[in-house]
Amino acid sequence: MGKLDGKVALVTGSGRGIGRAIAEKLASEGARLVINDLDADPAHETVEALKKMGVEAVACVGNVSAPDFADRFVNTAMSAYKGIDILVNNAGYTWDDVVQKMTDEQWYAIIDCHMTAPFRILRAAYPHVKALHAADKEAGREVYRKIVNISSTSALNGNAGQMNYSSAKAGVIGMTRALSREWGRFNVNVNCVAFGLIHTRMTSADAKDGATVKIDGRDIRVGVNPEALKSHAQRNPLGRGGTPEEAAGGVYLFCSPESNYITGQTIAVAGNLQ
Question: Pfam families this protein is in (predicted)?
Fold first, then answer.
C-alpha cells in the first residue's frame, strides 16, 4: 500500500529529467499519472515505463505555454480518472543573457513558461477542485489536495544573466502564497520547491561546446561552464549538485499526507547553498 494509492497526479514537463523522476516517485507510492512533455516520444516512453511499474498513466503532449494547453491538460485528467489530487507545475527551461542583451522575446518566453502557464493550469483546475471538495464534504470525507509549484534558488538570491528566469521564479513563490490563501477553504495545500543545481541534460553539457535543445522552434543553448560546476561543488556544504531523484524527493514531501497542515511554504532543495 502506497501513501498515494488511487491519487491522480498531473506533472508538467514529466517526460524526462526532474519531471520524470517526480512522476516515478509519485507512481511508486501508488499515484495515477498524467504525463506531459513538449515532445511526444519522451512523454509516451514515460507512460510506458510507468505502466510497467503497474500504475495507470496517460499522456498530454504539448507546450505548456500554448493558450489551449491548460484546458487540455486538466481535461485529460478528468476524462481518464475523474479527479485531480496532485498538480505539479514543473515544466521549464532557461534562456539566459545579461539585461542589456536580453530581448523581449527571451523575457516573455520565460515568463510565459514559468508563470503564465501555471496560472492558466491552476485557473482551469479551479472548478474541478471546487466540485471535488464539495463532493468530499457531502460524503463526509476529509481529503487534502496538493499543488506543488517549482521555483529556483535563482528566485531567492538572483543570478547574473537570468533576470527573466529569476523574476519568473520569484513570481512563482508569490503565486504559491496567494493561492494557498484562496484554496485553503477547499483543503488544498499549495507549496513551492526551489531547486538549486540539479544535474540534468540542461546542466550536464559543457556550455563551451555550444550544445542546444529545440524548444518551441528555437535552438536554446544549454550547459554549464565546468569551472562553475567545480566552484558550486566547493561552496555547497554537501560538496555536490543534486540528482533528479533528490529533487523529486523534495516535491514528494509536499504531496504526502504528512504535509496536510503545511501550506504557502517554499523549501530549497539545494544542499543548503544559498
Answer: adh_short
Q: Taking the CA of residue 223 as centre, how many other CA atoms within 13 Å lie in the half-sphere pointing to its CB?
A: 15
In tens, the pLDDT along 148-166 reads 999 999 999 999 999 999 9
pLDDT in tens, 187-243: 999 999 999 999 987 776 555 566 778 887 888 887 777 787 788 788 888 889 999
Active-site residues, by number, are 165
**Domain limits, the chain:** 8-198+243-268, 200-241
Question: Is 3.40.50.800 the CATH number for 8-198+243-268?
Answer: no
* Three-class DSSP labels, the chain: CCCCCCCEEEECCCCCHHHHHHHHHHHHCCCEEEECCCCHHHHHHHHHHHHHCCCCEEECCCCCCCCCHHHHHHHHHHHHHCCCCEEEECCCCCCCECCCCCCHHHHHHHHHHHHHHHHHHHHHHHHHHHHHHHHHHHHCCCCCEEEEEEEEHHHHHCCCCEHHHHHHHHHHHHHHHHHHHHHHHHCEEEEEEEECCECCHHHHCEHHHCCEEEECCEEEECCECHHHHHHHHHHCCCCCCECHHHHHHHHHHHHCHHHCCCCCCEEEECCCCC
